[in-house]
Structures are given as C-alpha cells and as structure tokens.
Amino acid sequence: MRELNETSLFSLVEQILTRLLIENLEKVGGNGEGELMLKTLNGTMLRVLEHCRPTRTFIVLIRLLTKYKSGASLQKMTGLIIRCLLKLTKIMSGLIHQIEIDKLLLVMHEYLSGYKLAGIDDLGSKTIKTILTEVVKLQGPTIWTSYEEIRKHSVPDVHMEKWITAILNSSTHGPSTLISPRSKPIDIISDIFSIIKHDYTKGFTQLMEHFTANPTVDYTSYISTLPIELQQKVREDLEVRLKKKESSTENTNIGGCNFQDFKERLSMMKQRYGIATSNAQPSDVTATLDNLRNKVSKKNDDPSSMTEIKSRIQNFRNSK
Asked: How many angstroms separate the CA atoms of 61 and 8, rounded?
C-alpha cells in the first residue's frame, strides 16, 4: 500500500469514500453483512491514512476536494474528505520529516487558485488554512524555502503568502520580530536540501562544498526532512565521500597501519616489556639491517674466503 503511486492512490481513495457514502449501507443483508462492509471500508481508509506516503495522501485528498467542491449534491463527499484531511493533520507532527513540504504547498495553492471570488469562507478553504497553520508551526521561517515553488507557478498567489506571514508573526513566534519573505533568515543548508529534493546531483555537490568549508556542521536534522529514500541515499553517499577524503589525507601506511602510529606503539611496547635502550635511535633498526646485508654480501664475494675453503678441502683429502 505504501508504494502506491499517486494515480492508483487517487482511484483507491475515491472508491473507498464513494462506497462509504452509500445510504443505509449498514442495513444491507440480513446477517450484518452491511455492517461488516462498513467496518471494512472504514478500516481500509484508516490504513491508507496511516501507511501510505503522507505527501501523496495529502495531495490525493486535496485534489479530491478540488474535484468535488463545486457539486452541491456531493456535500457529504466533501465533508468526508475534510474529515480525512483533519485526521491526517492531527498526526502531522509525527510525519513532518516524511512530507515534501514544497509539493504540499503547491497543491494547496492550486486548490485556492480555483476560486474566482475574493472571499474564501467555505469549509474546504478553512481546512486548507488549518493544514497550512500546522505546517508553518512545525517548519517555522524555513517554510519560505518551500514556498519558492509557489512563486514559480503560472497562477499568482493571492492568499498563502499573507497567511504564512500572519502565522509566523503570531504570538507563538513572538510579536517583536516580524517575519516576512523579504526578511526571512538566510538558511543555506535548507536551500541545499531543498535542491537535493529536485536535482540530487546538483544539491549533493553543493552539500559537499558546504561540508568542506564547514566540517563541524551536523546535517542530521536537515537529512530527516528529506523523503525516506533520499535520506538513505544521502547518508550512503556522504559515507563514501568521507571515506575517500580520509583515505587521501592519511600519512604513508604500512600494512594498513599508519607508520607514525606504528612507531609510537612499538616504542611503548619496548618500554613496557623492558627491551628499550636509552641510546637507541629511530634509524638503528635500519642501520643494523643494512650492516648485516653488507657483511653477508661481502663474505659471499670475498676471494680469500673461497681460497681458504678450497685449501681446507685439499688438506682434508691429503690427510686421507
């Protein structure tokens, strides 16, 4: 169910809600069949809200709201959709890191753009504002990064910028510091992670550039704002890049060990086991090996040594 694409999820939710609106469904059959059907449909809808990707679920419900908002005969459908949206909004605090805020804001803007009248006092628009209020409370001023997608839309925004500004400037965020899209704090990291959502290669390249300049920054909270599949990809790619960076900056290694570290540990072991010499120099071992090699080489090449050996062999034969 979680992997349903948007089109399939739209069809599924619409079918469930349509059947839930069948009049006297609970009275169908003589052995409680109708009640069982109603219970099954309700349970299925709850599982959709709990287990499908929250971004897709919000988008599907808002698009269904757009589809059915103009039909006076379908007020019950609108009411049912709104109930689902509000139920999902209540648990948004636990889902916020899974939600693609820019996509959610965009579909909300498209819903509001369908109104030709200045007044938007219908229940659907109030529901959109309720959802937006919760998102802004959870996101704070960083909401403006996601709002940039609305600026790119072909239909100009009439309501959402004003609503966001008003919510941010409410008592929850403190009246002394007014926040607007023109005075929003610059959050480079948020911008980078926003780019990652749309253009992974470009965004990740910028992330590595930022990390190189700011190696102590903790990106954990920012990574958690990405969709789950991107969270894993960013973590894996960061790990690979960091390993490469560590490998390129290490000192000369011998047998997989850092040479300087190896010498220090060897010195400690000698002292611990009482085999260190106070006058020993770091090059003693190398010098000893070279001397030994020279002596062996010299002995093998020395003609006098060979003559002496031959003489002894001859004397041994003569004595016989």
From this structure: 13
Closest listed residue to residue 17, CA positions, set 97, 83, 96, 107: 83
CA distance readout (Å), 110 to 56, 106, 154 = 15, 6, 10
The structure tokens listed for 203 are 């965004």
Nearest Cα residue to 38 out of 57, 24, 52: 24
| DSSP helix/strand/coil, 186 | coil
Q: What is the pTM of this model?
A: 0.56
Q: What is the CA radius of gyration of the chain?
A: 37
Spell out where the chain has E strands: 253-254, 257-258
Phi and psi at residue 257, to the nearest 5°? -115, 145
Taken as a whole, the chain contains a residue count of: 320
Beta partners for residue 76, in sequence order:
none
- Distance, in Å, from the CA atom of 203 to the CA atom of 205, rounded to the nearest integer, reads 5
What residue segments make up the domains of the chain, in order of their start? 6-173, 188-249
Nearest Cα neighbor of 142 from 222, 201, 59 is 222
Task: State the Cα–Cα distance between residues 102 and 143, nearest whole angstrom.
Answer: 9
One-letter identity of residue 271:
Q
What's the rounded Cα separation, in Å, for the pair 254 and 239? Answer: 24
pLDDT for position 226: 84
Task: Give residue 133's pLDDT.
Answer: 95
> Which 3 state secondary structure label does DSSP give 154?
coil
Assigned token pair, 132 = 């937006």
Residues in contact with 314: Cβ distance below 8 Å, sequence separation at least 6, in sequence order: none
The tokens describing 73, both together, are 């005969």
Q: What does the pLDDT look like over 45-67, one tens digit per residue?
A: 999 999 999 999 999 999 999 99
